[in-house]
UniProtKB/TrEMBL annotation:
Biological source species: Meloidogyne incognita
EC identifiers of the protein: 2.7.7.7
Family: Belongs to the DNA polymerase type-B family.
Function, in words: DNA polymerase II participates in chromosomal DNA replication.
Name assigned to this protein: DNA polymerase epsilon catalytic subunit
Length: 88
């Protein structure tokens, strides 16, 4: 999913602006990267359910009817198909 990587990138890249020396900058980046590693290592157990859903959730809109996508594949299309199956 794109969302988590985007979140990770945004947070880590911000750290490159913190600090006045290369050592300070890398130290700040390492702290942020370690935070993300800890989430991976403990499989999100330290997070509340809402925090975890925010990190792994993805917000997408489909601009056309499901049938209009034909044989295309995407997470949005798969999710829509599975939701439709559940609702029948």
């Amino acid at each position: 999913m794109t969302c988590q990587f985007l979140y990770f990138q945004t947070e880590v890249f911000k750290c490159f602006l913190k600090g006045s020396t290369l050592e300070e900058i890398y130290s700040n980046v390492a702290l942020e990267a370690n935070y993300w590693l800890s989430i991976l290592y403990d499989q999100g157990r330290a997070l509340s359910l809402s925090e975890l859903f925010e990190l792994i959730g993805e917000s997408k809109n489909m601009s056309r009817a499901l049938e209009d996508y034909g044989s295309q594949k995407s997470t949005s299309i798969t999710t829509a198909k599975r939701l439709a199956e559940c609702m029948l």
